[in-house]
Amino acid sequence: MLPPRPGGPGLASGGARARMVDALRRAGVRDARVLEAMGQVPRHAFVDAALASRAYEDVALPIGHGQTISRPSTVARMIELVVQSLPDTARAASRVLEVGTGCGYQAAVLARVFGQVVSVERVRGLHEQARSNLRAMRIANLRLVFGDGHLGVAQAAPFDAIVMAAAGETVPDALLGQMAVGARLIAPVGTTRQALHLVERLDRERWQVAVLDAVRFVPLRTGTS
Ligand code: SAH
């Protein structure tokens, strides 16, 4: 007999995930590509078995190493904000960089919305955990990189979108430089108080910033560990 799946058959069958997507829609998420992706990625497979039954609640959950997976409504809102300017026709050729792979959940969602995903993580244990969580999903358009996201991933730049999953005091210059003209970057910025900053690169020399919702993210740290 097969061992029971974490969280029971309700989670594996997708009913709980469909209810989560309904809640996202009610909370104002409109982009069909984002809603579809959120409806497909099994969030319960990215958290500890003991937490799997809570995977489709709109809460942040611990993923080890003192880090957390963001709540689904935050993941959906951030991706929606960066994908909005991208026409459907440009989607297959688009590239996104995620800073802070964590358990790999958001990277899997991004891989269903963008053509190519590069995700960088500074904690070796989490980088490996994400690799193992994602292995069975066989996502061909996702590359995981171990390193300090302050530097971006120069070999894969320029990016059409950048999503930061950890809060710095400012947006690192290297990341601004790795945005394509017209690209968007979404990042929590601040220390004790944080807000989402939406940056758009207007041309080679100009970037425009809008300060949006108050948020709470883990800090962006320097170097690797
Ligand atoms: N997107 C993740 C959320 C992880 S929490 C998920 O879906 O699970 C934020 C992550 O950012 C943590 O794993 C943390 O280790 C990582 N992080 C913090 N500073 C970083 C840096 N400078 N470079 C890369 N990753 C960083």
What is the straight-line distance between the termini? 41 Å
CATH topology: Rossmann fold
Helicity range of the residues? Answer: 25-40%
- What is the H/E order? HHHEEHEHEHEEHEEE
CATH superfamily: Vaccinia Virus protein VP39
**Annotated CATH architecture:** 3-Layer(aba) Sandwich
Small molecules held by this entry: S-adenosyl-L-homocysteine
Which stretches are poorly predicted, pLDDT < 50 over at least 5 residues? none
Give the C-level CATH assignment.
Answer: Alpha Beta
Give the overall shape, derived from the CA principal axes: globular
Give the strand order, joined by hyphens, for the main sheet: 5-4-3-6-7-8-9
The fraction of residues in strands falls at: 25-35%
| Largest sheet report | 7 strands, mixed
Integer count of domains: 1
Please count the helical segments.
7
Radius of gyration: 17 Å
Mean pLDDT reading: 94
Number of strands: 9
| Helix-strand category | alpha/beta
